[in-house]
Design goal:
alpha/beta; five-stranded mixed β-sheet; 10 strands; 43% helix; globular; binds 5'-O-[(R)-(carboxyoxy)(hydroxy)phosphoryl]adenosine; binds zinc ion
Length: 342
C-alpha cells in the first residue's frame, strides 16, 4: 500500500483566513475558516488593508487549529499548499509568506494553487474520476468564468465576465436594497418571499455565440428601477415595503441564474460535455443549483456541484487540488510570489 499523503492547504486570497489538512485529496482531516465579514460589513465590501491585517492576526491560530483538529503534528504533513493567485495582493501575501516559511522550516515541498481552479476542485473532491468532456462554471465574488475541464489541473478558459462578477452583482444589489453584506446569502433569503416574475430585469447574453458574461447592466437596471419607484413617488428605497424588496431580490436573482444557466448550456453544447461542474461562493445559491440541475437533467449531463460548505472560500479545496500537483510532481520554490491576476 502506498503511503497516504497529507497536505496542509492555506487560503488568504480575499477575506477568509483558512487552513485545512486533507489526506490523499479527499479525506478532510481538518478545515478551519476565520471569516472577516464583521470587519468589512460596515464598508459593504472588502477593504484590502484591513483584510491584510486580519489575515496576519489570524494566520498562526488558524494553521495551529488545523493541526489540532486533525490530531497531527507538523512532521505529519507531506507538503504545504498555498493559493497564490488570483486575489488581493496584500491578502495573498500573508498566506504566501506563511506557507513559504512553513515549507522551509519543515523542509517540505511547496505547492502553488490557482484559487479559481481550487473552487472547481470543491465540485470534484469526492470523485474518483469524471466523465469528459466537462464544462465548468466558477461563480464567486471576484470571478465568473466558464472552462473546458480536462482534468483538475487542465482547464481552458471558454468565457468570463467583461465587467462585474456574479457575486459582486449580488453584493452591489444587496447594498442598493439595504440588505446586509455579504449580499448573496441575504438576497437569496429575501428572494424566498418574493415573486421572481415581478420585474423583468435584462438578461445580458452579449453576442450570439459569446460565452462571456456581463452583469453591470443588470445591477444598473435594479438601481434605476429602485430610483424609478422613488420618482413615481410611490416609495423611497429605504422605505420600500418588504414585499417590494423581496420581489426585486427574487427578480434580480432569477435574471442572474437565467444567464448563468443559458451560458453554461451554450458552453456544454460547444464541447459536447458529459459533465458540468459548479463551484465558487455563488454556487451556494439554491436557485442556481436547482436551475442548473434542471438544465442538466434535460440535456443528460451529469452535474457535480460543490457541497455548500465548500462553495465559499476555504482551504480544503486548496489542499485537495494540491494532491493532484503532488502526484504530478509539480512544485513551487521559495521565490513564489502572490499574483493579483491569474
Ligand atoms: O468564493 P467566494 O467566497 O470568494 C471569492 O472568491 O470571491 O465568493 C463570495 C461571493 C460573495 O459575492 C457572496 O455574496 C457570494 O459569493 N455568495 C452567494 C451566496 N453565498 C455567497 N451568492 C448568491 N447566493 C448565495 N447563497
Ligand atoms: Zn473564492
Amino acid at each position: 500500500m502506498t503511503k497516504a499523503i497529507n497536505i496542509l492547504g492555506i487560503e488568504t486570497s480575499c477575506d477568509e483566513t483558512a487552513a485545512a489538512i486533507v489526506t490523499d485529496g479527499r479525506d478532510i482531516r481538518s478545515s478551519v475558516v476565520a471569516s472577516q465579514v464583521d470587519i468589512h460589513q460596515r464598508f459593504g465590501g472588502v477593504v484590502p488593508e484591513l483584510a491584510s491585517r486580519a489575515h496576519m492576526e489570524a494566520i498562526y491560530p488558524v494553521v495551529s487549529q488545523a493541526f489540532e483538529q486533525a490530531g497531527m503534528e507538523t512532521g505529519d504533513i507531506d507538503a504545504v499548499a498555498i493559493a497564490n493567485q488570483p486575489g488581493l495582493t496584500v491578502a495573498l501575501m500573508v498566506g504566501v509568506t506563511a506557507a513559504k516559511a512553513l515549507a522551509f522550516a519543515l523542509d517540505k515541498p511547496l505547492i502553488a494553487i490557482n484559487h479559481i481552479h481550487a473552487h472547481l476542485q470543491s465540485a470534484m473532491i469526492q470523485q474518483e474520476s469524471i466523465d469528459l468532456p466537462a464544462v465548468a462554471l466558477v461563480v464567486s465574488g471576484g470571478h465568473t468564468s466558464l472552462y473546458d475541464c480536462e482534468s483538475p489541473l487542465d482547464l481552458t478558459l471558454m468565457g468570463s465576465t467583461i465587467d462585474d462578477a456574479a457575486g459582486e452583482a449580488f453584493d452591489k444589489v444587496a447594498s442598493i436594497l439595504n440588505l446586509p453584506y455579504p449580499g448573496g446569502p441575504s438576497i437569496e433569503k429575501t428572494a424566498r418571499e418574493g415573486d421572481h416574475k415581478a420585474i423583468n430585469f435584462p438578461r445580458s447574453m452579449l453576442a450570439k455565440d459569446s460565452l462571456d458574461f456581463s452583469f453591470s447592466g443588470l445591477k444598473t437596471a435594479v438601481l434605476y428601477y429602485c430610483q424609478g419607484q422613488d420618482m413615481k413617488g410611490k416609495s423611497q428605497v429605504p422605505s420600500m415595503t418588504a414585499q417590494q424588496i423581496a420581489d426585486i431580490a427574487a427578480s434580480f436573482q432569477a435574471a442572474v441564474v437565467d444567464v448563468l444557466v443559458a451560458k453554461t448550456k451554450r458552453a456544454a453544447e460547444r464541447i459536447n460535455a458529459k459533465t458540468a461542474l459548479l463551484g465558487g461562493g455563488v454556487a451556494a445559491n439554491s436557485a442556481l443549483r436547482g436551475a442548473l440541475k434542471e438544465m442538466c437533467g434535460k440535456t443528460n449531463i451529469k452535474l457535480l456541484i460543490a457541497p455548500k460548505n465548500l462553495c465559499t472560500d476555504n482551504a480544503v479545496m486548496v489542499a485537495s487540488l494540491a494532491w493532484h500537483k503532488y502526484k504530478a510532481g509539480i512544485f513551487a520554490d521559495l521565490t513564489l510570489e502572490p499574483k493579483a491576476r491569474a
